[in-house]
């Protein structure tokens, strides 16, 4: 089994601001202005997760422990991601969980999983943004438990 939570299958599904921050000159500029970076994250936080004050504390703590290169190279690599060709050859059950209100990764990435992975289940969480495990923890855990308990019968 595999579970994909709010992840891009195609990097172009990332929010435009994240795609731009993967460019080295923008990353360097933003990193040199930590107050502007924190302000930008604070302004954007309510669009990322419902309990944004908790998430804001967590993300600013994590960023303070990262280097410029590690943080922005991860964004850059996500932007270059294109997993579409790998999806049809997956033989294990996959569950995709996406928040309907996700403003970080387009929730339409769930469609790619549903259309291309032979054994897939999709849960679109209507009360969630980018972090369904934080926005709807009980429903998220129930969806995981249901998926992991299901007896998948191999075809053929």
In short:
The mean pLDDT is 91. Strands 1-2-3 form a three-stranded parallel β-sheet, sandwiched between helices.
Features:
156 residues, mainly alpha, Rossmann fold, three-stranded parallel beta sheet
CATH homologous superfamily of the largest domain - what is it? Alpha/Beta hydrolase fold, catalytic domain
Q: Could you state the order of secondary-structure elements as H and E?
A: EHHHHHEHEHH
Low-pLDDT regions: none
Question: β content, as a range?
Answer: 5-15%
How many DSSP H or I helices? Answer: 8
What's the number of domains?
A: 2
Task: Itemize the secondary structure elements and their pairings.
Layout: E1 2-5, H1 16-21, H2 24-31, H3 34-44, H4 52-64, H5 68-80, E2 94-99, H6 109-116, E3 120-125, H7 132-135, H8 137-149
Parallel strand pairs: 1-2, 2-3
Model description:
This protein has 156 residues and is mainly alpha-helical. It has 2 domains: 2-12 and 81-149, Rossmann fold (3-Layer(aba) Sandwich), CATH 3.40.50.1820; 15-80, no CATH class. Helix content is 49%, strand content 10%. The protein is built from 8 helices and 3 strands. The protein has helices at 16-21, 24-31, 34-44, 52-64, 68-80, 109-116, 132-135, 137-149, and strands at 2-5, 94-99, 120-125. It has a 3-stranded parallel beta sheet, with helices on both faces. The longest helix is centred in the middle third of the chain and has 13 residues, at 52-64. The protein is globular. The two termini are 19 Å apart.
């Amino acid at each position: 089994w595999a579970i994909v939570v709010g992840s891009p299958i195609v990097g172009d599904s990332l929010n435009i601001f994240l795609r731009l921050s993967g460019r080295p000159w923008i990353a360097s500029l933003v990193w040199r202005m930590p107050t502007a970076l924190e302000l930008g994250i604070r302004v954007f936080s309510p669009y990322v997760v419902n309990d944004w004050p908790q998430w804001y504390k967590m993300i600013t703590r994590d960023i303070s422990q990262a280097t410029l290169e590690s943080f922005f190279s991860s964004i850059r690599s996500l932007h270059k991601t294109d997993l579409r060709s790998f999806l049809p050859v997956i033989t294990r059950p996959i569950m995709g969980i996406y928040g309907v209100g996700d403003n970080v990764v387009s929730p339409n990435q769930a469609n790619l999983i549903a259309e291309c992975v032979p054994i897939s289940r999709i849960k679109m969480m209507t009360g969630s943004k980018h972090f369904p495990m934080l926005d709807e923890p009980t429903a998220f855990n129930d969806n995981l438990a249901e998926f992991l308990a299901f007896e998948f019968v191999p075809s053929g």
